[in-house]
Amino acid sequence: MAVYFQGDVAKAAPSIGRQRLRDLIDRNDPRTARFLVRLWNKQKSDITYAELRQMILTGQIDAETIERWQQDYSRFVTSELMPLWREMIHDAAGSLAERWPVWSFDANTEQIAAYTARHAAELVTNSTAQQIEAIRAMVQRAATVQDLTVDQLARIIRPVIGLYKGQVTANFNYYNTVRQNLIQNHPRMKAEAIERRAQEAALKYATRQHLYRAHMIARTELAFGYNNGEFNALKQAQARGYIGQLKKRPSTADDERVCALCKALERETVDMDQPFSNGMQFAPWHPHCRCAMDYIEV
Questions:
Q1: Model confidence, pTM
Q2: pLDDT tens digits, residue range 202-228?
């Protein structure tokens, strides 16, 4: 936790908060990513080719499939993310507990529960919506161009379930490029062999895409848990009189990969209870955000 105190306590360097957060994420990220990959593999195996063909012909994803996906994400949040969020919250509060042994952090307050529940609901809704948008985009594209059969499209869609629209589009373009190159460069190759090799290439690509997306979600959600805990621990310490009035400001990773959004927010310093210009109380601001928070006692 990067907290600046005035008085007889030395100032903590901003990099300490970032490093603590990074270490915690590195420790927990692989497990969460593996769970997500297993979830998407289950979703792919649960949906039949008959359901996919019907989806392609009607241009709609049936309500039963959407409900299954929502339940999958709800179980992920309940069984995997909630325990990790609690871990990250307690880890974030740990430095205050070390500083004041008589102070105890309460992770079960109404404020933490309400904020976490709201975030969990948004995660389930957004994850399902992104998945639906991605599949619909592929179906609409194929319907417009009409260069693939229903069976071909069904076999392309199934491996990319779980990805978002940009990834699905990239995967489809990759499949199409491989397919066209085989047609042009191997005129004697049978159509079935071309189709099989193009699908195999797209499947390998989808595997890498799923892993990337899994780590992105895992790291973002772990950062949410940590920053949520840090913010609320400081609020509780304030209420008990251990810390005075606080201001807060974002602390970026301070390298060439920092995005324009995070750079702009790093220049903002606001009161503890005041949201930043993006309407949010603390990082992460976006998927893969690596920002930590600095708190300054005034």
A1: 0.85
A2: 999 999 999 999 999 999 998 888 888
